[in-house]
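URGENT: need a sanity check before tomorrow's submission.

F., can you look over the Alpha/beta hydrolase record below? I want to be sure the sequence and structure line up before it goes out.
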Amino acid sequence: MYFSRPPLRLAGILIGLALTAASLSFPAAPAVGVGPKAAKPTIVLVHGSFADSSGWSKVIERLQRHGYTALAVANPLRGLASDAAYLDSFIDGIEGPVVLVGHSYGGAVITETAPDPDVKALVYVSAFLPEEGETAFGIAGRFPGSQITPETIRTVTLPSGGDDVYLRAETFGKVFGPGVPASVLRLLAATQRPILYTALTEPATAGPAWKRLPSWVVISKTDQAIPAAAQRFMTVRAGARAVEVDASHSAFLTRPGVVADVIEKAAR
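Structure tokens as predicted:
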């Protein structure tokens, strides 16, 4: 079969149309299910007295597996206002949203922290949620059951004249860690960090952070340091969401899965 070539004029028209079509740009179809994801908050964990930041290790492992950045602060334990100021400085170096988690006295520290638009939520684990004017010792002593007494602590007088407070090794397990293996308790007692006595008697001065931020609480039902009744009282007063666990003051060691789950709820 024979086809004749198109006239030159028709060929020119066809080539021109092809070039015009090639030069046209059409908007790309939108990608389905693709878009910027909101950054997960950084979890900042604050330990309390008679402990250090390594106590959060099991909780941190779980948070990291779920894609969170978790940072455990070396709480100075030198005074409520100064410890809170240190925490504020630590937070200033973090980009993006933050969830603060405090254990025991660390709860008082996150309560005292200055307003920061990046802090989105608070989580208290067997912790203090003080109101302005309250002290850690004052709250614990208001309800029966605390085993932090002159018989269970020892003090070390500092050159400055203040006193550092430790739990006695022979009573550490009774106060801090029922439910923790004896071998672990011996290590915790030997490596505990002391708190300045005046930090436990220093009144909260800032308007409590739980009045302006959503808060979650893990209440330890068999706590021998901060009675469960005290934890419930503070939780109700703060209007916080609560989870009660069968655990002692060391819930972050014995129930790390529960603690991590509550933190993740606060982070969503």
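My own read: The chain has a mean pLDDT of 88. The first strand starts at residue 42 and ends at 46. If you see anything odd, call me.
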